[in-house]
Amino acid sequence: MPLLQFVGAIHFMIEERVLVQKFLNRKGRERLKKPDWLKIKLGDPRNQNQVMELIDGLNLHTVCQEAKCPNIFECWTDKTATFMLGGDTCTRHCGFCAVNKGKPMNLDPLEPTHVAEAVKHLDLKHAVITSVNRDDLPDGGSMHWAETILKVRELNPDCKIEVLIPDFNGNEESLNNVLNARPEVLNHNTETIARLYRRVRPDAKYDQTLELLGRSAHYRDTQFPQMLTKSGIMAGLGEGFEEVVDLMRDLRSVSCDIMTIGQYLQPYEKRLQVERYVTPEEFAEWKKIGEAMGFKHVESSPLTRSSYHARQQTESGENVGAQT
Fold first, then answer.
1. Pairing mode, strands 126-131 and 82-85
2. What is the pLDDT of the chain when averaged over all its residues?
3. Residue 108 region, left (φ>0) first, then alpha (ψ -120 to 50), else beta?
4. For 145-202, what is each residue's pLDDT tens digit?
5. First to last CA, the chain
6. In the chain, what percentage of residues exceed pLDDT 70?
7. Are 138 and 171 within 8 A, CB to CB?
8. Cα torsion 272, 278, 284, 290: sign
9. How far apart are CA 146 and CA 174, in angstroms?
10. Facing residues of 163 across strands?
11. Other CB atoms closer than 10 Å to residue 107's CB: what's the count?
12. How far apart are the C-alpha atoms of 101 and 88, rounded to whole Å?
């Protein structure tokens, strides 16, 4: 075979292999086809545009956009958004997350006021606020969190506030900064089972997550009984059914009130791939098991996310609490 023809054949084989690899995961199997139960209905674009214009006009970020949430159309149609503090760049390197990684910008001192104004403009009765991890800051951004909670409450006294916080590297003082601002719901996601933490959350610790939730529950029991604690996980990253049940027991051992379980969806190619699509029947079984364990509410379905139906979750948890 002539040299040029040989080189051309090798080049073709390499290109063909690259194309094939785009459709295969690291284990060499075909990418999983998304099942019908994960199909999403689009809502009224007028309300979606109104939320988008408001977010852009106040220089805010939402986890709906940054995390590529599958429920964004439904929630934004309902004029609901989850506000994200601290910018759009995270200092962690979680394998599942679509949020930008790197060195964040300085905190925006007007952000707490702008979030409060957005909540008022949307006339929210239940506001959900989250943030990127800000390990670059001495307090992890916790005082910025506290100021935001206070500003939202000042401008929206009838609105309940749910916070989905980072772990603050286990710093109890930073956690207390948030707790002392007294949000109605304190949420910190466990994300996955302990066995998968190194791959899914390489900068976090399973035991530290449970400790944060336990401290929050202690604050609830001793300082602010109206508060609910909450945590959530993603399914489909390689965990077994019973491993999720074991995780649920761990959450109940630290007196967690509300749990969410949803299907992990790969946001883009360089993130962790979906190991399997969990059936709606399995999600329903986890819900049944969790309620029997004593959770005040379990939201468990393929499209469940931390803030999906958050107001209804809280109302359900409050109603159970009133009955016990």
1. parallel
2. 81
3. beta
4. 999 999 999 999 999 999 999 999 999 999 999 999 999 999 999 999 999 999 999 8
5. 83
6. 72
7. no
8. negative
9. 10
10. 129, 186
11. 17
12. 9
Contacts of 318 (CB under 8 A, 6+ apart): 228
Beta-strand relationship, 82-85 and 185-187: unpaired
Instruction: Return the number of other C-beta atoms located less than 10 Å from residue 10's C-beta.
Output: 10
* Residues written for the chain: 324
Q: What is the DSSP string of 65-131?
A: HHTT-TTHHHHHHTT--EEEES-SEES---TT--SEESPPPPP-TTHHHHHHHHHHHTT-SEEEEEE
Distances from the Cα of 72 to the Cα of 42, 49, 60, 81, 122, angstroms: 9, 12, 16, 8, 15
Residue 96 sits at φ, ψ, to 5 deg, of -105, -15
Distance from C-alpha of 23 to C-alpha of 19, rounded to nearest angstrom: 7
Distance CA(210)–CA(116), nearest Å, equals 30
Sheet containing 160-164: which strands, arranged edge to edge? 61-62, 82-85, 126-131, 160-164, 185-187, 228-235, 258-263, 297-300
The closest of 132, 129, 61 to 92, measured between CA atoms, is: 132
| Structural contact between residues 241 and 282, judged by C-beta atoms closer than 8 angstroms | yes
Tell me the β-bridge partners of 297: 258
Q: How far apart are CA 232 and CA 240, in angstroms?
A: 16
